[in-house]
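Design a sequence for this backbone.
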């Protein structure tokens, strides 16, 4: 009998509508396999169901979970980006309900979203325990207690649950893991179907038919900044970063290359380009190993040192993702991410070094009006990055923007699916001047206009060839349906 079954929830159809079928990336659930590794190292037997990659319905997931006969089910609602935790609550809720219809196996749930809203999660979802905080030690002691048939969970740090007499117990989060390498070890990649994951379409523009194999790993946890819209630090309780040893990171990448044939690799750290000595050490070690990697990494404009770009490219960093967010000084100041005057120069230097750029923009931040959104769009056109992600701002639980939206009485989505940027019921947060519908329409129009413009498609064809252009044309031919826009 398995001690604990970890489930990665997912529903690509809900999250991305028709784009989920062929174009959305399917990322390996790093938090799940990392947690699995930790539990295995503590002598528990662990199995994993990745219902996202398998495209299982909640009922299929529940049936498979029951067949495994675990003593405890833990739904790990993390996902590939911080906000995925909230989006994954929609399928997570359906899976827990389906399991409870078939069995009374105890269910725990962990992730950024449950940490931000523990009582609400406990009240609304069919779960017995909510794990507050990053979770490994809480899950370990909960599994141990259940395995030993103990009923007293009150001493377990980070646990939120109803006691036998129905009183709410909400313990403080366990202290953060100090040595991530030592505690978590190399992720348990052997527990997931590595051949089934695929990269973002743009990540593989240089060979659009080779989106597989694909992997994504963390080399550090957290972020030292505190932007108002970002959920990243909600899990850890405060801004800050903890780092893995470069040698361990490179060894794990080596294992992914040699055992699973991985070339497409995402460094999932929300801020990889941050501590020059450390990230360049990792990249220099990768150069020494001579792997033919196709990597993408996150950077801020103000943490990128352009003198390093040539070496980054040599190590296999083919893509840098910058959170540019807005071209407007007031909008940026209000979100706690002050503007840099040299945004366009840094992007230009990045591209001149051969590293392609994904530029992320957010419309509908609190100080946005039509003029500021238009100036952001115009900056996107000037930059003409190899990929531009246009988001409509969402007030995710655990962010300062969420607190701000509640205080102002701004309407938030009724279901967690409404927090998805691409879902039918997507409901972005309103701004001080614009409605949610204004923002969403501007976002959808901008996405279409940018990706169908002659200037952009010409650049893509010159750089990546006609296959990449054909892929973009297929994506722009899919019209997302939007409830608040009357579809
Ligand atoms: S710098 Fe990026 S990862 Fe860090 S808090 Fe801001 S948006 Fe989030």
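Sequence:
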């Amino acid at each position: 009998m398995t001690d604990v079954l970890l489930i990665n929830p997912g529903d690509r159809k809900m999250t991305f509508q028709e784009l989920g079928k062929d174009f959305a990336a399917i990322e390996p659930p790093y938090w799940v396999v990392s947690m699995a590794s930790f539990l295995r190292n503590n002598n528990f037997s662990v199995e994993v169901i990745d219902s996202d990659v398998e495209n299982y319905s909640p009922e299929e997931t529940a049936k498979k979970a029951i067949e495994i006969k675990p003593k405890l089910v833990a739904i790990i609602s993390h996902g590939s980006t911080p906000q995925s935790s909230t989006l994954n609550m929609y399928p997570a809720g359906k899976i827990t309900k389906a399991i409870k219809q078939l069995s009374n196996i105890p269910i725990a749930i962990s992730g950024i979203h449950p940490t931000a809203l523990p009582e609400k999660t406990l009240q609304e979802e069919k779960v017995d325990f909510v794990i507050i905080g990053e979770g490994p030690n809480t899950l370990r002691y909960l599994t141990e207690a259940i395995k030993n048939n103990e009923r007293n969970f009150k001493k377990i740090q980070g646990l939120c649950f109803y006691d036998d007499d129905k009183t709410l117990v909400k313990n403080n989060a366990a202290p953060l893991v100090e040595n991530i390498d030592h505690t978590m070890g190399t992720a348990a990649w052997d527990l997931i179907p590595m051949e089934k994951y695929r990269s973002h379409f743009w990540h593989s523009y240089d060979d659009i038919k080779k989106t597989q194999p694909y992997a994504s790993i963390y080399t550090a946890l957290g972020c030292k900044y505190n932007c108002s819209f970002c959920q990243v630090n909600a899990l850890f309780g405060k801004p800050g970063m903890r780092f893995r040893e470069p040698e361990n990171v490179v060894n794990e990448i080596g294992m992914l290359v040699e055992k699973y044939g991985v070339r497409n690799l995402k460094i999932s750290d929300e801020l990889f380009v941050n501590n020059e000595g450390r990230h360049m050490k990792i990249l220099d070690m990768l150069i020494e190993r001579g792997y033919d990697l196709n990597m993408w990494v996150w950077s801020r404009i103000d943490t990128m040192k352009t003198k390093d770009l040539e070496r980054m490219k040599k190590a296999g960093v083919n893509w840098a993702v910058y959170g540019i967010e807005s071209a407007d000084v007031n909008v940026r100041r209000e979100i706690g991410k002050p503007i840099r005057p040299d945004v366009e120069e840094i992007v230009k230097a990045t591209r001149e070094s051969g590293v392609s750029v994904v530029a992320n923009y957010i419309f509908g931040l609190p100080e946005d009006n039509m003029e500021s959104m238009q100036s952001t769009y115009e900056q996107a056109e000037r930059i003409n990055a190899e990929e531009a992600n246009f988001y409509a701002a969402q007030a995710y639980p655990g962010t300062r923007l969420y607190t701000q939206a509640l205080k102002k009485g701004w309407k938030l989505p009724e279901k967690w699916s409404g927090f998805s940027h691409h879902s039918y019921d997507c409901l972005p947060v309103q701004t001080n001047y614009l409605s949610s519908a204004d923002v969403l329409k501007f976002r959808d129009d901008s996405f279409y206009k940018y990706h169908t413009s002659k200037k952009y498609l010409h650049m893509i064809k010159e750089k990546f060839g006609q296959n990449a252009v054909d892929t973009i044309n297929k994506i722009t031919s899919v019209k997302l349906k939007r409830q608040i826009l009357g579809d």
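The two ends are 49 Å apart (CA to CA).
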